[in-house]
Design brief:
Elements (H helix, E strand, L loop, with lengths): L1 H33 L6 H32 L8 H10 L19 E4 L6 E4 L9 H8 L18 H13 L18 E3 L7 E2 L7 E2 L8 E3 L7 E2 L12 E3 L21 E3 L21 E3 L21 E3 L7 E2 L12 E3 L7 E2 L12 E3 L7 E3 L8 E3 L11 E3 L7 E2 L12 E3 L21 E3 L21 E3 L7 E2 L12 E3 L7 E2 L12 E3 L7 H6 L15 H4 L1
Parallel strand pairs: 3-6, 4-5, 4-7, 6-8, 8-9, 9-10, 10-11, 11-13, 12-14, 13-15, 15-18, 16-17, 16-19, 18-20, 20-21, 21-22, 22-24, 23-25, 24-26
Antiparallel strand pairs: 1-2
Helix pairs in contact: 1-2, 1-5
């Protein structure tokens, strides 16, 4: 016990000596400035006031260090005095690099934001390879009000002293801003690391590591840091974190309970990594998550009930993940999900009950997949999506099925989707539409059927689309426009049927389109006589009509 006491006392003295040296430097610098004969009394008062404030902050920080050391330090996990000193002095206030981080090359760029006003220090060195310094500064807004910059070296044991000296010297002649550089934990709200090459998060014995111990962080951006491994204790005790950005790294696996302490996290971005598996236990603790980004990973598949505990999530995105199917009940528990984006995958069919119990879903983006058929029946074969899967999505307003391989639909494919306002079926292989297909879409405002193989529209196909404002049917194989094509579209404002094969137009085709404002019939082979005979009940903007002058003279 005596040996342990002596050891503890030794490091207590290190802490006290460390801050005493900093305070002594501030005193010396202050006295040097006060000795300047050109400084007036008002400036001297300001300098002394700044000195008092800085010393008070350092004393508070020293006391916090001592308290943390006495209550939490476990000397047994550290191997030498140097590591212990760094652990004591920096763990609770700064990032840890136990030694100079060799992985941070001389031509790497380091940008740090430590507070809500994005006070920044930029480590500048020769040969910046990512972008010129001025481009980065202009893009990210890192000039302060005096157009000055602060440079620091990669985070090591000298960083804190350097920042104190630079910031203190700068503050001596300036009025005290509302947000001075603070070192106490409660003043750190945001940290943004940009292109800092890190090997892992959470392993205090690794040279290629950062250890986050600032408990009041609300925003933490670790994107584009080359992170491959996240220790399951990396985010321990970050109870106030609201946004966490881990996108554009090389993370291959998440351990169970990695995020268990992030009870109020709202945003989690894991896009552009190397994740192949996502299990429900990997997402434990995210009880208040509202936005989850998983795009551009390498998932083999997503298991059922993966998102079971994420009942507060409103927005879910996993585009470009090479997914071939969605398992039944995969979204079970996500009762508040309103926006779902699964575009740019290889999904050829959706199994029954995939969307069961998602009552608040308003927007689905299913574009750029491999769907072939939408049927009103239960799924019996592959390459078929049953619209029954959407039956629980009574609030669905936006459905994008564009850029798939759809050929046909069953009669009740969109049954009871009365709240739908936007439907895109563009860029498929649709050849025919049943005249009852859209009967339940009574609130639809935009319908996109362009880039398909349609040759004819059956009579009364749009009869119940009384609120439709925009209808796009360009780049199809229509050869004629009949007078009953657009019955029921009294609110239609924009109609595009360009780049088809239309050589015949019934004169009364557009007669009952009382709200029509723009009509595009460009790049069709019809003759002048059809233009002369077209009947409109009101003025229609001919600018987007795209007719040649000799056709309408």
């Amino acid at each position: 016990k005596l040996v342990e006491f002596v050891k503890m006392e030794h490091f207590r003295l290190i802490i006290i000596s460390y801050y005493d040296d900093l305070i002594r430097e501030i005193d010396i610098k202050t006295e040097e400035l006060l000795a300047n004969e050109n400084i007036g009394n008002h400036d001297k008062d300001e300098i002394n006031q700044n000195r008092t404030e800085w010393i008070m902050r350092l004393q508070q920080m020293r006391d916090q260090n001592l308290l943390y050391f006495e209550q939490n330090i476990d000397l047994r996990i550290l191997t030498n005095q140097n590591e212990i000193s760094n652990y004591i002095l920096f763990e609770n206030e700064f990032l840890i690099f136990p030694h100079y981080p060799s992985f941070l090359k001389e031509n790497a760029l380091l940008i740090l934001n430590f507070n809500k006003n994005a006070k920044s220090w930029i480590k500048k060195n020769r040969g910046l390879k990512y972008a010129s310094q001025i481009e980065i500064l202009n893009r990210m807004g890192y000039f302060n009000q005096h157009n000055q910059m602060f440079y620091i070296y990669p985070l090591n044991k000298n960083t804190l002293e350097y920042c104190i000296r630079k910031k203190f010297s700068y503050q001596l002649f300036s009025s005290r801003p509302e947000n001075n550089l603070e070192f106490s934990d409660e003043n750190y709200k945001e940290l943004n690391l940009y292109r800092v090459l890190l090997g892992s998060i959470g392993d205090p014995m690794s040279n290629q590591c950062i250890l986050i111990k600032l408990e009041n962080f609300q925003i933490l951006d670790l994107s584009k840091c080359g992170i491959k491994i996240i220790n399951k204790f990396a985010f321990k005790d970050l109870f106030n974190l609201k946004s966490l950005y881990l996108n554009n790294n090389e993370i291959g696996i998440l351990e169970e309970n990695t995020f268990k302490d992030l009870k109020i996290l709202n945003v989690l971005n894991l896009s552009c990594n190397c994740l192949r598996i996502l299990d429900v236990k990997m997402l434990n603790g995210l009880s208040n998550l509202e936005k989850l980004y998983l795009s551009s990973n390498k998932f083999l598949c997503l298991q059922s009930i993966t998102f079971r505990n994420l009942d507060k999530v409103l927005f879910l995105e996993f585009t470009d993940c090479n997914l071939r199917t969605l398992k039944p009940n995969i979204f079970i528990g996500m009762y508040n999900l309103s926006h779902l984006d699964v575009s740019n995958n290889l999904i050829s069919f959706i199994q029954k009950d995939t969307f069961k119990h998602i009552y608040n879903l308003k927007k689905i983006n299913f574009s750029n997949n491999s769907l072939i058929k939408i049927d009103e029946k239960k799924i019996l074969i592959n390459d078929t999506i049953s619209i029954n899967n959407f039956n629980d999505a009574k609030k669905l307003e936006h459905l994008n099925l564009g850029w798939n391989k759809l050929v046909e639909f069953g009669e009740k494919a969109f049954y009871d989707m009365k709240n739908l306002r936007y439907l895109s079926l563009r860029s498929n292989n649709i050849e025919k539409i049943d005249k009852t297909l859209f009967d339940d879409l009574i609130n639809l405002e935009t319908l996109d059927l362009s880039f398909n193989s349609l040759r004819v529209i059956e009579e009364n196909t749009f009869l119940f689309l009384h609120k439709l404002k925009n209808l796009y049917m360009s780049i199809n194989k229509f050869e004629s426009i009949e007078n009953n094509y657009f019955d029921g579209l009294e609110c239609l404002e924009n109609l595009s049927i360009s780049n088809c094969q239309i050589d015949k137009i019934d004169p009364e085709s557009f007669k009952n389109l009382d709200s029509l404002k723009k009509l595009d019939l460009s790049n069709n082979p019809f003759e002048k006589e059809y233009i002369d005979k077209i009947i409109f009940n009101h003025h229609v903007d001919l600018t987007p009509f795209h007719c040649d002058i000799d056709q309408i003279d």
